[in-house]
Amino acid sequence: MSENKPQARAEAxxxxxTLVVHVGGEWKITNPRPAWTSLVEGETVKRIRLIADQLDxxxxxxxxxIREARAWSEAQGAAFVLEGLPAGAERLAQxxxxxxxxxxxxPHGLPDLFAVVGQAxxxxxxxxxxxxxxxxxxxxxxxxxxxxxAQFRWSDCVVEMQQCGAMVLPIVGLISFLxxxxxxxxxxxxxxxxxxxxxxxDLVGLSVVREMGPMMAAIVLAGRTGAAFAATLATMKANEExxxxxxxxxxxxxxxxxxxxxALFLMMPLLAIYSNFLGILGGMLISWTILDIPxxxxxxxxxxxxxxxxxxxxxxxxATFGVIIGLSGCLRxxxxxxSAAGVGQAATSAVVSGILLxxxxxxxxxxxxxxxxx
Length: 374
Prior knowledge:
With 374 residues, the protein is an alpha/beta fold. Helix content is 68%, strand content 9%. The protein has 2 domains: 9-97, STAS domain (Transcription Regulator spoIIAA); 150-372, no CATH class.
């Protein structure tokens, strides 16, 4: 049976202007230790010598005692000397004595205009480079696909088509139907004043087919599918699954990005047609119940105002919106931080950037189609 080691002890002896302190025993943080203030209470000296005397063991408890002694010596203006103490205890005491750096002071007033513009410009340039990188990689992947060399699996694409196609039919249908009802009701309030009730069909038909149908479907998919793509890829990046694919020689663009973008590109025009139909159906319901317009007359007026150019305009927009949603979701997922917070940030950023690019591209298409006379 081992003997019990003596508890930590500290004895102070004054020798002229010098205070000699002997420390010994076992210094453990879990055991009681002498307090430095009780040793030097009422003392005024010019020099302090801290000497090891039969020191059996130590941990951070001894380092705390040394730190207290050094701090008291500096406050009194006395010299401080260590003799025979472990070098590790002295280094630990110095680390404990270091003060944490103060956080930088928050600037007051408005930020510098040039700094804000410069930071925004640099961030925009980084975003443009990232988008260009992904577009280029997808273009090379498409070339490999047509040559039969891409690591592309149609089974993954079919699964994604189901997720971004059939699974979103209820929410897309509900939103499109309600948008058609709202547009017909608001248009009826104004057109009834001029006795032009029947032209509600023209208003709803053109608006839904050219703009609102593809737009509503795209916004729903940006919030649902785009965020899901970003979260999935960001989680795979955080778990180092994408690194594992690259180590095995599998291209993440071929294996992960292209099936998702292909699924969105193929399903968005079909969703736009579905959205157009339900939007027109919502307008027909309002016209029949509020304006007393027969459904046959409403349908005839709708067919007379909508031609192939209007339908093709909406389908071109829908396909473009699908590519934009896929690019936004996959880019945010691939460029996310390797953490749980990075997954949430990637999903949020994918939704915001996707909707923003959808609106911008819709405005560009409006100018192009107007110049072409469509």
